[in-house]
From TrEMBL:
Gene name of this polypeptide: COII
Segments forming domain Cytochrome oxidase subunit II transmembrane region profile: 1-91
Protein name per Swiss-Prot or TrEMBL: Cytochrome c oxidase subunit 2
Origin species: Blastophaga nipponica
Membrane association type: Multi-pass membrane protein
Reactions catalysed according to its record: 4 Fe(II)-[cytochrome c] + O2 + 8 H(+)(in) = 4 Fe(III)-[cytochrome c] + 2 H2O + 4 H(+)(out)
Length: 190
């Protein structure tokens, strides 16, 4: 759930988002290790009194500063690729929802059960201060939890970006093209 003045990511509401948060923490740990290592090397170079001005080439040190960054990049690349493939994996959805982006609103069609169309506008008048800016709308899309849902995303006019941050979902809505994204919602929320 989002909180006011929150500096971290929203709580993951799907297995993919929880894996993304874990990968974010993992990548930040590696970045902090690199920063600490660099500060240590810089401080040691500054404090070092032994300088060899006649050293022209150092093949060993060049191999070291080529291999160590490659190792760090591999520690980031493999989990990132695994997460990328997991997020694009398609499973058998229970039902599909068609999402159409318009210039100032989104329309949702529950095609499997009825021909119900829901139009959702961002709340313009922020009189109620308990609303989340750019996350609250006048009509909420209601979807079931603990089942696979497929969203078919398209647009009527220009390119839009359909995103649900707590589910780790972001897909472009392009006119004349239908993109699909699968979701698994674990608990209720916005």
């Amino acid at each position: 759930m989002s909180l006011w003045a929150q500096f971290m990511l929203q709580d993951g509401n799907s297995p993919i988002m929880q894996n993304m948060i874990f990968f974010h923490d993992y990548a930040m740990m590696i970045v902090m290790m690199i920063i600490i290592l660099l500060f240590y090397v810089i401080i040691n170079i500054i404090k070092n009194k032994y300088i060899d001005r006649m050293m022209i080439s150092g093949h060993f040190i060049e191999i070291i500063w080529t291999i160590i960054p490659m190792i760090f990049l591999l520690f980031l690349a493999f989990p990132s690729l695994h997460l990328l493939y997991l997020s694009d994996e398609t499973k058998d959805p229970i039902f599909s929802i068609k999402v159409i982006g318009h210039q100032w609103y989104w329309s949702y069609e529950y095609g499997d059960f009825s021909n119900k169309v829901l139009e959702s506008y961002i709340v313009k008048n922020m009189v109620d201060k308990d609303l989340f800016r750019l996350l609250d709308v006048d009509n909420y899309l209601i979807v079931p939890m603990n089942c696979q849902i497929r969203f078919l995303v398209s647009s009527m006019d220009v390119i839009h970006s359909f995103t649900i941050p707590s589910l780790g979902v972001k897909v472009d809505a392009v006119p004349g093209r239908i993109n699909q994204i699968n979701m698994f919602i674990q608990r209720p929320g916005i």
